[in-house]
Amino acid sequence: MMDEIQKRLLNEVAGLHEVPEGAYNIRANGKSVGRNSTAHIDISTKEDGSGLVIRIQPGTKNESVHIPVVLSQSGLHEVVYNDFYIGDDCDVTIVAGCGIDNCGIQDSEHDGIHRFYVGKNSRVKYVEKHYGSGDGKGKRILNPGTEVYLQEGTQMEMEMVQIKGVDSTERKTYAEVAAGAKLLVRESLMTHGEQNAVSSYEVKLNGDGANADVISRSVARDSSYQKFDAKIVGNAPSSGHTECDAIIMDHARILAIPQLEANDIDAALVHEAAIGKIAGEQIMKLMTLGLTEKEAEEQIINGFLS
Amino acid sequence: MMDEIQKRLLNEVAGLHEVPEGAYNIRANGKSVGRNSTAHIDISTKEDGSGLVIRIQPGTKNESVHIPVVLSQSGLHEVVYNDFYIGDDCDVTIVAGCGIDNCGIQDSEHDGIHRFYVGKNSRVKYVEKHYGSGDGKGKRILNPGTEVYLQEGTQMEMEMVQIKGVDSTERKTYAEVAAGAKLLVRESLMTHGEQNAVSSYEVKLNGDGANADVISRSVARDSSYQKFDAKIVGNAPSSGHTECDAIIMDHARILAIPQLEANDIDAALVHEAAIGKIAGEQIMKLMTLGLTEKEAEEQIINGFLS
């Protein structure tokens, strides 16, 4: 059903060599090429065809959903709206991600809009990887939008990774966190060439004891440009922390605009940001261990992003 | 020449009980009520009457300029443009500041736009205090604008204080820092009642070894609102640090939007921000030493802002 390029992309974005266990939907070049629902997790196509509805029954534990997307056709543009309804008391892992291989001259674009409605006292781990390849002139464009609505006592951990090959991305994440709920975000971003990446977060802490921890690590190489824009709003007795660490290389440019908004006397918000290049001493140390300068650099970057 | 209210304001904003030593210009209710130029420092009125020109000769050391402004008349609105030309190799202190007493029903407003052109290898200390008093319904409005152009090797230290009584303020500071020059900013801000304060900084590090350190400490009480907006731009091998610590009390709201923009691989930029309330333990500790809760709170705030 899938060709070699698509299989390679699938491996890059979802770590899959074959069909995954559990529930899944695999989308290739705009069409579903494989789907499996399970006893507790139902995947269906929306009536208007605009995307998927994924329903996870209350109490579902230790199960996973994979919904990777691969594009290998130049000139394809698609917007997909996927909605996740996750019941109370669940413990699930959701793996999304998109890989684009573009060897053609037309731009290829996938915009995935994911909405998560998470019930009470659930734990959700969400992994999203973006990857591009292909040496065509056509650009590889990914604009993911993520909306997260956490009910009381829920914990959601989001791992957002974009390491390679995406020419242009505008990432938007919006979250509302209720009492006792917790949102953890770990973003890793690397841009190179002439790439352009904009990543924005808005997290509203709306309930007593709501907590958010948003950490972004990024590397900007060559002549790439990155903008990181994170806003944490404390509307209740809550705590929020955001951290943005960036390594700048070559002729890259980075703009970081964190925002803290405290609307409640018991909102405790903290932000840290640092932009700098790799310390010369670090490279020297690794070079005395026998690495070339290039290898030393790669090792430092890999350590930083992982 | 000045009445008791004006004298009290003058003391609050410039620490002056009488006419200061050195160069000065005292402005009261829209008119100059005293001026002194010295051998090295010339103060003159602009031809169009829009403000002052202050010229400090190269090599001027250990001298000071005071240009306080007091307003005690309700309904007065004024915009003043003061330009400072400071020669090479100077070491001077400049004290500005504005006090408004408004017992009337009309708003009183003073917008002072200060531009500093600082020559090479000079040291400048700039102190600016804003203060409001009076129980009239008319608002006390201060919108200071500050532009700073630092030539090579110069150091400028800015102390910006607004502790009390200003109903609305929009503070804008813009700076360009050349090679080897250094800008230090210490801002202390307190808002109460229904006050509104917006403070924005844009600092461009344009030369090799340029350095900026912008630190803001603020306390927002009652139903007041504060917005802090600091942007540091690294256009050269340079280092920048900005820190925003805020104490939130009562029903106040605070928004902090720092920005770091690195356009050079050798620009090292760091930001920290924290918003939170006074820790309960701190108050408890002072109360066991015999202070009332109110006194303990005041002592913590005073320590934090000084």
Automatic annotation (TrEMBL), chains A, B:
Xref: InterPro entries: Fe-S_cluster_assembly_SufBD, SUF_FeS_clus_asmbl_SufBD_core, SUF_FeS_clus_asmbl_SufBD_sf
Pfam family, one: SUFBD_core
Domain SUF system FeS cluster assembly SufBD core, residue spans: 88-304
Similarity field: Belongs to the iron-sulfur cluster assembly SufBD family.
Provenance organism: Marvinbryantia formatexigens DSM 14469
Protein name: SufB/sufD domain protein
A Gene Ontology BP annotation from the UniProt entry: iron-sulfur cluster assembly
Domain of life where this protein originates: Bacteria
